[in-house]
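Slide 14.
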Amino acid sequence: MRPDPEQYGWGHQHMAVERTNRDIRTLIGQIADGEIMLPEIQRGYVWRASQVAKLVESMYLGYPAGTLLLWKTDEGAETRAAAIGAGQGLPSVMPLYLLDGQQRLTSLYRVFNDHPTAQIVFNIETEAFQNQSNATLRSPKWVKVYDVVGPDADSFALQMQLRSAGLSIDGAEIGRRLKALESISQRDFHMEVLHGFSYEEVTQIFVRVNSGGRPLKTTDLAMATLSARSPGFLGELEKESARWAERGYRAVDANFLIKAITLSLSISGKRTSSVSRLTTASPESVTEGWERVRRGLERVVPLLCEQLLVPTTALISSVTALHPLIVFYGRLPAGARVDPEVEKGLIYWFLAASGSNRYGGATDSALTQDVNALDSDEPVRALLANLRLDEKGFSVTARDLSGRNIQSPYIMLSYLAAAHSGAEDWWAGGPISITAEGTDKLQYSMLHPAAQLRNHRNKYSSAEINELANIVFVSQQTAKNMIGNHSPAEYIKEVQTGDLAAHAVPTDPRVLEADGFRDFLVARRTLLAERISALLERFRPAFIDAGGASGLRSEAPCKSLVLTGYAAGSRTLLLAEAQAGAQHWVGRIDTAELDAALDAAASGLDSDVTVAGETAPLKVDEDGVTLPVGPFKLRGTAEQWRVALKDAFSDALPAADCPEAESPAWTGEAEEFLLADIGVQRA
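Slide 15: predicted structure.
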């Protein structure tokens, strides 16, 4: 939306910077009333609850809160919605546009308005802050910050309640601490307000200022530039993104679309995937690229949904694999026919690229190579040649599936193998569905429940329990009402034999009890590999010899990485064990530092983490988060890191059992290792 300058009676002003102060309560009121708004060049809200808690703690302790940078203009500006969980009012004065301080102000607004993702609580005894949890809900020591600073706060009643809770501090100290918490709302922010600057100048200021805080990604710079040149364009991107999100393709966000436009530009010379190209491209070529992207999406999403049965991007290991497909279809005229064999071949390449983790690491060079391959007279052959699969093809063996878990790129192939075999849900009936309705959370269950395997006399590891070969794609109703904590020997009697085969579930009685779990994994890997091979055969290009298909992993050197969690009360240890050829390496990773570093990574900030007693840099870039761990540069998305930590501690071992000995610091050249490959041993 663009406010009308005439409505507010503003005239032309000379450029100036006004410096002033304003308290938090006033600023929050201005946000609610629409008197402080976000310009379109702003990025989305990204802070995690732990970062919000740290901000509130800093305010409580009286630490400096930093400066806010705002812009006042009589031009009016395109805006984006603030992530406050409510609409903003229509301002009675010309609004201020927030250039720097969005994360802080949005976080405080959420805390002061009881937003469900900002339930920050305060320990009245220790003066610690954190997000609400089941444990803090049960303890009288924890007070929700909103209950102290919110509009209906009753500090007297709260103080009386705390005094009767048997705390280790007296009533006077309780009152003092509550008063200090309440006074957060009166803390001042220093503000600098820009007057009379043009939108283009403000965009440059925004880029420079934000480069010193959360580093601007190249896509952020491109968005800011496009917004300055074509106000409203980012709104078009977000509208298109929302349209595909309704179809289950939620990863087709503004960043994804910006990258797609870059790849679709008409560029003389060698094509490049660098988004920085957008900052110099002409408005006409950007418009043409945008139209090609929209045309490409109109063909690619139905192709994947209807022919391949991929209902959601949550299933795709790297959505970067969609970009070459979008470029291919986008450059065709609307309604143009594609040879069915070429279409099959493109799907085959997509499966192979996803299964081999083509875009699991640094993506730009691979993406540029693949988009350039589309210029070939035989684009499918050229794409497969980039994977070294143009002659032998792609295959998946039981050995490839060994050690894989839910983060593996084989998750999509396993699901699709079941879907194309006609697998049904065991409780509700009908075709399987990978996600719960309206979410990106994958629906699956363990065939051998963890409760049956933990503490078993065979000493099954967490990695074994969480293997992909122990996962079946059924609804949560099936998981709860049929599987529960029962061994497969009990519940598969209720499943038809044909559907067990479609789900690649072995039926040999010897492997259906907990005692035979390891043999079960061996049998299921074999069945899964056969199903996946049948899926690949559906789309195999005719130029690939059906008998010569072979995976690439047999050519790779032996390497593996296993993360194991150890715990004793609140104390946690994370042990990394790496194998690189004939060399074995063991080291501990400081979990508290890693957790804090991942919080910072969500804001695009690099950090340091102690690994095997040495300081290791955790680096953030457009492709994810990388941490040196012994012989490897361990890389994955922030979400993959969180899942890896959760998996490591889902069945934590006693801290006393954690090996004390650690390997010396790795002095050789570290090679990239993907989080999706954790637990995998290649030979």
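Speaker note: Residues 1-13, 550-557 have pLDDT under 50 and may be disordered.
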